Amino acid sequence: MKGFTSKKLFNDYLKTVEKNDGIKITDYLFRDKSVSWGTNFCYSYTKENGKKEYTRHCPREESSYMANYLRGNIFRENCYSCPLANVNRVSDFTFGDYWEIENEHPEFVTKAKPPISLRRGVSCILVNTEKGRKYAELLKNKMIMNEVTLESISSHNGNLRAPSSKGGARDEILALYREKGYAAVDERYRNAIGAKKYKYRIKNALKSHLPDRVRILCYQNRFLSKI
User: Fold this and answer.
1) pLDDT digits over 126-179, tens only?
2) Which of 21, 48, 121, 185 is the most exposed place for a label (fewest CB within 10 A)?
3) 115-148: b or e for each residue (b if 16 or more CB lie within 10 Å)?
């Protein structure tokens, strides 16, 4: 979790999408694992007659809300100075995403039996107390677990090292939101990406359907990993 936004801002974003597309959103998933692990999202909606429900799967870059969230432009002010953004945890466990497993431990995907699925996502668990350690031992029989270093997790999870940083456009975006509403923020973003949205859709479709072994090879290739 990078930070939190206000509920009002998110609801205004949904209303903007509904108005632009002439739909009614009935459900929204920030992490769409039906397509692939990552930060893609999807939402269910009905059209004007309201008789049939549809689902739309989208890359994060296509959404003004998701893009500005990931850039740190719309967090609450206290997220940028959160005292809990470090490895000194206060709970028995800390759960999160094991980002960059493709580089840290590709063998968990390509050689382990049973293998870990990149498509379904890979979680990390920090065991912070002795009580947590005892429960972790019990969990070994119920899930696929591998022991890794704290550094391999924290080096790819920035909020285990420091609070999120303010995005460079935060002040401008929030000022625009207060003055003209979220529709203006959304229009600003859509004008900025222009036809790139089609590039994002194609890129997302290709990455989402690659077999895990091929994805590992792409991450290990210096050129392909930047695409």
Assistant:
1) 999 999 999 999 988 888 899 999 999 999 999 999 999 999 999 999 999 999
2) 48
3) ebebbeebebbbbbeeebeeebeeeeeeeeeeee
- Compute the distance between CA of residue 107 and CA of residue 152 in angstroms, rounded to an integer: 14
* Contact predicate 58/35, CB 8 Å: no
- pLDDT higher at 222 or 209: 209
Alpha-carbon distance values, 81 to 78, 162, 167, 210 (Å) = 5, 8, 14, 39
Residue keyed to tokens 């091929």: 214
The span from the CA of 187 to the CA of 194, in Å, is 10
CB-based contacts of 116, cutoff 8 Å, min separation 6: 101, 108, 109, 122, 144
d(CA 186, CA 224): 31
Q: What mean pLDDT do residues 199-209 have? A: 78
Question: Is residue 206 packed enough to be buried (19+ CB in 10 Å), middle (13-18) or exposed (0-12)?
Answer: exposed
Token pair of 145 as six digits? 């677990």
Largest Cα span, the chain: 56
The answer to whether the beta carbons of residues 116 and 144 sit under 8 Å apart is: yes
Quick one: how far is CA 27 from the chain centroid? 17
| pLDDT tens digits, 26-37 | 999 988 877 667
45 burial class (0-12, 13-18, 19+ CB within 10 angstroms)?
buried
Render pLDDT for 36-72 as a digit per residue (tens, 0 to 9): 677 788 999 999 777 889 999 888 899 999 999 999 9
